[in-house]
UniProtKB/TrEMBL annotation:
<dbReference type="InterPro" id="IPR003607">
    <property type="entry name" value="HD/PDEase_dom"/>
</dbReference>
<dbReference type="InterPro" id="IPR006674">
    <property type="entry name" value="HD_domain"/>
</dbReference>
<feature type="domain" description="HD/PDEase">
    <location>
        <begin position="33"/>
        <end position="162"/>
    </location>
</feature>
<dbReference type="Pfam" id="PF01966">
    <property type="entry name" value="HD"/>
</dbReference>
<protein>
    <submittedName>
        <fullName>HD domain-containing protein</fullName>
    </submittedName>
</protein>
Length: 218
């Protein structure tokens, strides 16, 4: 893990919010996740912030930071038997964290939505900036979407602060391990692709068959 930049200028001039809320979120996520998820989540914040600047999207840095930090906590072992999509588990953890600190309900809703929709392409970009930028940061770090939209120096500075050793294979394995115990939650979303590659016993749900075999007679 690189040096923390909380309250100080970081990659590309992006500052991690210097607030008690941000500090407590950092401490909680750092203590409950490994380097893979923590470093990825911090990169999502930095990349999302830089993309927000490039796209002219004014946003609340504190809400973006909390949403980025919590967006993958639902992959952890405590949630493997929840029966819910990991995105919802992650969003609910963020909601509990914020509600316990009397954060306004509209702010909680933005964070919850940003996390819950971060693997649902084609929708977040049309919503509030915090929602759009969490997904943008995730897509940048995981999928490389818009790779050349950010300056190479800024990209390198983020990775120097939060390295990504063997990230592609490690994050795919984290997805497989987090969703594998509840494969039914992959129906209709991108994690079905992950399980199809990593679990030889996985049977992908078929949307067309589900309709045709429903109890409706016509």
């Amino acid at each position: 893990m690189g040096e923390r930049t909380d309250g100080h200028e970081g990659p590309g001039g992006v500052r991690v919010p210097d607030s008690r809320l941000a500090a407590e979120a950092t401490e909680l996520v750092r203590d409950t996740t490994g380097d893979l998820v923590y470093d990825h989540s911090r990169r999502v914040f930095f990349f999302g912030s830089l993309l927000g600047r490039a796209r002219g999207l004014s946003h609340d840095p504190e809400l973006l930071y909390v949403a980025a930090l919590f967006h993958d906590v639902g992959l952890g072992e405590p949630f493997h038997d929840s029966g819910r999509r990991f995105e919802v588990d992650s969003a609910d953890e963020a909601r509990r964290f914020l509600a316990a600190r009397s954060v306004p309900e509209d702010s909680i809703r933005r964070v919850w939505t940003a996390i819950a929709l971060h693997t649902t392409p084609g929708i977040p970009e049309f919503m509030e900036p915090e929602v759009a930028l969490v997904t943008a940061g995730v897509e940048y770090d995981v999928l490389g979407f818009g790779f050349d939209e950010l300056a190479a120096d800024d990209r390198a500075a983020v990775v120097a602060l939060h390295p990504r050793p063997a990230f592609k294979q490690r994050i795919l394995r984290a997805f497989a391990d987090g969703v594998g115990p509840k494969p039914e939650t992959a129906f209709g979303n991108v994690k079905a692709d992950v399980l199809a590659h990593y679990d030889p016993h996985f049977e992908r749900g078929d949307f067309v068959r589900t309709i045709l075999e429903s109890p409706w007679p016509e």
